[in-house]
Amino acid sequence: MRHKELKAWTCGVAQLFPLAPGRPRLLGLSQWLQQACPVDHFVLFVYEGNHRPLDLFDTFPADVRHVYVEDYQVGPYLLDPFYLACTRDQAPGLWRLRQFAPDHFYLGEYYQTYYQQTGLTEEIAFFVDLDDGAKAVLSLMRKTSSPAYSRDEMQLLECARPVVEQMVREAWALRRAQPRPAQDLDYKIREAFDHFGAQVLTAREQEIVQLLLRGHSSASVAEQLDISPGTVKIHRKNIYAKLGIGSQSELLGLFIRELAGHEGVREVRATA
């Protein structure tokens, strides 16, 4: 960005504040960030406790929104590196998805089966701390036809972080005035994940299944659980036999079908 363009971009901040807080100001924010570098899609999710992600704002066309938002909300978010970073209380800042992705994430079934159908080549996000321990993640997505974000673009976007944080917190304050029910059906989704395979798998096997679904290789699972790769291999063989499957692809398929067939998940999908 040349000096003249940079000056115009920084001056553009003043045009955001007369906009009404909430969606109008977030839309203005997305357009302002677009002046710094091209972005194909924006989405602002709030992760709060065991609730499913709340879509506070997005720019998805209607014909693809179901993949990016509705399908994501009923289960795949539990395998998302950004969501998992929030559960570990990731520090605020601007982050690349690949900074959090497990070693086999881009080879894993979640990426191959779900993430690739979004047609994205890269995703970066502003992490913003909210009240009551909630986390906001404003994702800036690029399609496969676009290049990865350059170092210069990342540095420029980092300069926008104070503005992003203020406007995200303002939007959340408006939404927070209508708190979500304490016993929201969203809890059923996390419960279904935590107990996936519990009828036939041991507690250790369930731990391994969750790591495999999230994109960890056998070596990474071994490191995470402080066991040998050979032990992981034996566990995988036993897991597949108990679940009546023969591959990790079938494991993901079984997981998604389990979520879709869960009574609470069906109710959540119906009311989304």
Describe the secondary-structure layout.
Blueprint: H1 3-11, H2 23-36, E1 41-47, E2 54-58, H3 65-73, H4 81-87, E3 93-96, H5 109-114, E4 120-129, E5 135-143, H6 151-159, H7 161-176, H8 186-194, H9 203-213, H10 218-225, H11 229-243, H12 248-261, H13 263-271
Antiparallel strand pairs: 1-2, 1-5, 3-4, 4-5
Report on the architecture of this protein.
- By secondary structure, this protein is an alpha+beta fold.
- It folds into two domains: 3-176, Transcription factor LuxR-like, autoinducer-binding domain (Beta-Lactamase, 2-Layer Sandwich), CATH 3.30.450.80; 186-271, Winged helix-like DNA-binding domain superfamily/Winged helix DNA-binding domain (Arc Repressor Mutant, subunit A).
- The protein has helices spanning 3-11, 23-36, 65-73, 81-87, 109-114, 151-159, 161-176, 186-194, 203-213, 218-225, 229-243, 248-261, 263-271; strands spanning 41-47, 54-58, 93-96, 120-129, 135-143.
- The chain has a five-stranded antiparallel β-sheet with strand order 2-1-5-4-3.
- A hairpin with a 5-residue loop joins β4 (120-129) and β5.
- α10 crosses α11 (229-243).
- The chain is elongated and about 65 Å long.
- Keywords: DNA-binding, Transcription, Transcription regulation.
- InterPro entries: Sig_transdc_resp-reg_C-effctor (IPR016032), TF_LuxR_autoind-bd_dom_sf (IPR036693), Tscrpt_reg_LuxR_C (IPR000792), WH-like_DNA-bd_sf (IPR036388).
